[in-house]
Amino acid sequence: MIEQVETKIHVLIVDDIPETRENVRKLLYFEKDIEVVGAAASGHEGIEMARDLRPDIVLMDINMPDIDGISATESISQSVPEVQIIMMSVQGETDYLRRSMLAGAREFLVKPFSADELTASIRRVHQLKPKAAPVQPELLRPQRVPSRPGQEAEIGVREGEIVAVYSPKGGTGCSTIATNLALALKEKEERVVLVDGDLQFGDVAVLLNLQASRTISDLVPAIDTLDADLMSDVLLAHPSGMKTLLAPPRPDVAEMVTADIMREILKNLMLLNDYTIVDTASYLDDVVLTILEISDWILLVMTPDIPTIKSVRLFLEALDALDYIAKTRLIVNKTSRKDGITEKDIASHIKHSVWATVPRDNGTVTAAANQGIPVVISSHKSAVAKNLTQVAELLRAETAKEAERPRDRAAKLAAGTASEKLLGRIFG
Ligand SMILES: Nc1ncnc2c1ncn2[C@@H]1O[C@H](COP(=O)(O)OP(=O)(O)OP(=O)(O)O)[C@@H](O)[C@H]1O
Ligand SMILES: [Mg+2]
């Protein structure tokens, strides 16, 4: 999509090889909205020209004889922070990718690239350029703006619910439940976003058959200036209308999304959505703990087997120490009459009532995962889909009940200490 621009996107090329500079120039020659304003033959020259010309985008080569593209990127990001940098490098340099992103680059183009790839990247990065001021604390409260001249009205910067779907054991069904729950909520709610909080090995893109062309890592460089425009540039829409924030393309990029960054992103999503559903990984690191902390609800997923029951009991004890029990709801997934472990057994063993159950149905759930169409859409008449839809109904009912009680959101949104407390409790 070509952005409507009044002025052209100004591009500076930095590459020590003359043919590459010329090739890139040629690739951009016929683009009406893009203009190459300069070409530098070294890292030093690139830094100087970026300062003088203040282009919108710098196309930066990595391997250069004087200073390399990563150091030049770092320098430009500091001295001319409004300039957006796209790295260009040859394949197989994953460590370069990570270091480039940390240095402040916005994208990474693998050479050789086509004109389409190049122009799409330039336009995308240009669009991501922060246009507005940073999110002000007052945005966290409902705002008053005039609806008609002379009259003021409350507008709906309403805080939606953040719901974490978590299990201390892997493979219990968090991703399946999170995707179906989000889709079931979307049937009635207008604004639902599903966040893949399993940053390293997230499955949401696969379960929904989405191409992860934009992911949560695209928000990292702009984290201090997040706003609704920027968020909507990075969120991908599912055909249902539900929005998704997908996990980074590769595990090594995941570590750029720190706990503080996750908190900032969820705070923003909460203001823009009725429900923010977060699928999580089963290990407890700072990011997952922050998700659990900031969430209004923790849907704790388990399967009816002894090892999982034991882990869930331990986890519930830790949650108790943080007063998270009140917001925790237990879902038993993959139930089967043949198991011999009943809901009652589970409840008495872990001293926590079962909130919802979802039957085991290997054929239906596996087929849905392989097609990339979750069961609430592909097999909505199946028992598993009906129970998952019921989970959405239960959550709506709980939310409505809870809405009558004021919540201490401000305390929760501030940088938390609960993570440390919880870690101490679990490992101490
Ligand atoms: N109700 C169900 N009946 C049958 N199979 C199920 C059910 N729910 C989930 N599964 C299957 O169990 C496996 C794990 O599910 P899923 O990926 O949703 O779990 P997870 O907790 O997110 O796992 P991970 O720890 O890998 O992130 C998948 O193969 C999925 O198809
Ligand atoms: Mg998962």
Structure in a nutshell:
This protein is an alpha/beta fold and 428 residues long. It contains 18 helices and 15 strands. It folds into two domains: 120 residues, Response regulator (Rossmann fold, 3-Layer(aba) Sandwich), CATH 3.40.50; 267 residues, 3-Layer(aba) Sandwich (Rossmann fold), CATH 3.40.50.300.
Structural summary, described in words:
The N and C termini lie far apart (53 Å). Strand 1, helix 1 and strand 2 form a beta-alpha-beta unit. The longest helix is centred in the last third of the chain and has 21 residues, at 383-403. The protein folds into two domains: 9-128, Response regulator (Rossmann fold); 161-427, P-loop containing nucleotide triphosphate hydrolases (Rossmann fold). Helix 2 (43-53) runs parallel beside helix 3 (69-79) and helix 12 (306-321) packs across helix 18 (418-427). The chain is of the alpha/beta class. The chain is elongated, with a radius of gyration of 24 Å. The chain contains 18 helices and 15 strands. 40% of the residues are buried. The strands form three sheets. The chain has an eight-stranded mixed β-sheet with strand order 10-11-9-12-8-13-14-15, sandwiched between helices. Residues 1-5 and 131-157 have low confidence and may be disordered. The protein has helices at 18-28, 43-53, 69-79, 94-103, 115-128, 174-186, 204-207, 228-234, 251-254, 259-272, 286-294, 306-321, 343-350, 362-371, 375-378, 383-403, 409-413, 418-427; strands spanning 9-14, 34-40, 57-61, 84-90, 107-111, 144-148, 151-154, 161-166, 192-197, 236-237, 243-245, 275-280, 297-302, 328-335, 354-359. Bound molecules: adenosine-5'-triphosphate and magnesium ion. Adenosine-5'-triphosphate is lined by residues 167, 170-176, 198, 203, 282, 333-334, 358, 360-362, 365-366, 369, 384.
